[in-house]
Amino acid sequence: MDTYKTLNEVLVSLFRDVNDIEQKAIITSEFSDITNNDMHVIDAIGIDRPKNMSSIARELSVTVGTLTISVNSLVKKGYVDRQRSSEDRRVVYISLSEKGVKAYYHHKKFHEQMIDSVVKELTEEELEALVKALTKLNTWFRSF
Fold first, then answer.
1. How many other CB atoms are there within 10 angstroms of residue 82's CB atom?
2. Helix (H) / strand (E) containing 81
3. What is the rounded distance in angstroms from the CA atom of residue 10 to the CA atom of residue 85?
4. What pLDDT, in 10s, does the model give residues 68-108?
5. Which three-class secondary structure string do you get for 51-73?
6. pTM > 0.70
């Protein structure tokens, strides 16, 4: 099998498998009312401080309009809170509710387990090569 064909098969399979496994692992009975995409919005909002819609949309590489649809749904389900800025009422800050924070940590735990299981299988040299290659791949995807 040539390198092109192997890389293509591995990347397509890896993308599909990570999505499927993540869906099964993080959308539990406790979080059955949200999607994998919702969980990534929750992750982008984060727990540090409230964020405006533009910064969240930029992080997710989506439009503010697309993000608004997801945020509206997450507000209705009780995962996200909106708050207007006291300095400029046009600015709306988004933060996680208590329920959203629980979902955030649930998602974070899945990612930690995934990375831990990959790292323990690799030598230091393999890990370094993997990080370098994936960083280059990520740069290409981000520029696309």
1. 14
2. strand 80-84
3. 46
4. 999 999 999 999 999 998 888 888 999 999 999 999 999 99
5. EEHHHHHHHHCCCHHHHHHHHHH
6. yes
